Amino acid sequence: MILSGKEVSKAIKAKIAEMMGKCDRTPHLVTISVSPDPSTRSYINSQTKAAKKLDIDHTHRELETESGMGKLIEVIEESNQDESVDGILLALPLPEGYDKLQAINHIDPEKDVEGITATNLGLLFYEKPFYYPCTAQAVLEILKHYNIKVYGKDITIIGRSTTVGKPLDLMILEKSNNGTPTVCHTRTADLKQKIKEAKILIVAAGKHGVVETNMLSSDTVVIDVGINFVDGKLVGDVKRDKALEKEKNISITPVPGGVGTVTTTLLMSNVVSRCLAITKNLEKN
Predict the structure, then answer these.
(1) Which residues of the chain carry a pLDDT beneath 70?
(2) Cβ neighbours for 42, distance < 8 A, ≥ 6 positions apart
(3) pLDDT of residue 281
(4) Which of 2, 73, 85, 125 is the most exposed place for a label (fewest CB within 10 A)?
(5) Are residues 149 and 100 in the same domain?
(6) What is the pLDDT of residues 74-119, one digit of tens each?
(7) One domain, residues 92 and 141
(8) How many domains does the chain have?
């Protein structure tokens, strides 16, 4: 079974349209980049297209490497202070010589629609971030949409990044989910055995082929978060055998058209959500 991210995204977009109708102005996203490489530029373009389709204003600020950290922080602070801006996205990676953590943590946590600042990640421990990391949230949204229960279930995560593996671990543990996560990585002993034992497997290792269909047990649910280019083709972390998937009754997200699609839509939802929150606050006052 294919767990299409497009179907999940469609449902989220319907909620976005409802929120948009209650906002007193057009939501506004600002993306910031420093000498973006082709893949980063492609990512920014995808945000532009997504915003346009949803009637969300989008401004892109692009700096050159020579601009330096001071200028980058200045641009971030300008967006922090601009009351018309609802969300700020800092495109990564940054060039050599830039301090990624310092730059990220200059973003106002209430405008951190990707949920990546230290404040939002820290608030995960208390189950109260302004925004959850979008990619990790996309994983749970897909499971929820397809009525795949995590409550009381053992869930295996491969990958320990700050954008997926680590926050997803905490999110699955939240009382609203009550799952039991196990976080693995490419250096985990007996990784193949853990893959075989998994019934819900989330793969976010950033390495194509870390999981192959023949490693999976029957009836496994696989959420493939990976984005890799192999021979010019976009693929996930799972090396797929579609015939074997059918034989084993594997449910899996495709790449492309899976987690990434939902991630982008959730980011836009966060932008609109903040705009709506400001609207409601103004109405109260």
Answers:
(1) 285
(2) none
(3) 79
(4) 125
(5) no
(6) 999 999 999 999 999 999 999 999 999 999 999 999 999 999 999 9
(7) no
(8) 2
* CATH code of the domain containing 254: 3.40.50.720
Q: State the Cα–Cα distance between residues 9 and 13, nearest whole angstrom.
A: 6
- ∠ CA 265-266-270, rounded to 5°: 120
Q: What is the pLDDT of residue 23?
A: 94
- Are 123 and 130 a contacting pair, CB within 8 Å? yes
Q: Which domain holds residue 239?
A: 134-259
The amino acid sitting at 153 is K
Same domain, 254 and 139: yes
- Cα(237)–Cα(164) distance, integer angstroms: 14
Q: Are residues 67 and 104 in the same domain?
A: yes
Cβ-Cβ contacts under 8 Å for 198 (sequence gap 6 or more): 154, 155, 156, 216, 217, 220
Residue 142 C-alpha from the chain's centroid: 12
- For residue 43, the model assigns a pLDDT of 83
The amino acid sitting at 8 is V
Inside any domain, residue 101: yes
277 φ, ψ to 5°?
-60, -40
Residue 283 in any domain: the answer is no
103: in domain: yes
CB 162 within 8 A of CB 116: yes
**Structure confidence at residue 280 (pLDDT):** 83
- Give pLDDT, residue 285: 61
The values of phi and psi at residue 211, to 5°, are -125, 135
Identity of the residue numbered 278: I
Based on the fold, state whether residues 255 and 141 are members of the same structural domain: yes
| Same domain assignment for residues 96 and 171 | no
149 in the same domain as 248 = yes
The structure tokens 């349209």 sit at 17
Closest to 144 measured CA to CA, from 28, 12, 282: 12
In angstroms, what is the C-alpha Rg of the chain? 19
| Residue 281: inside a domain | no
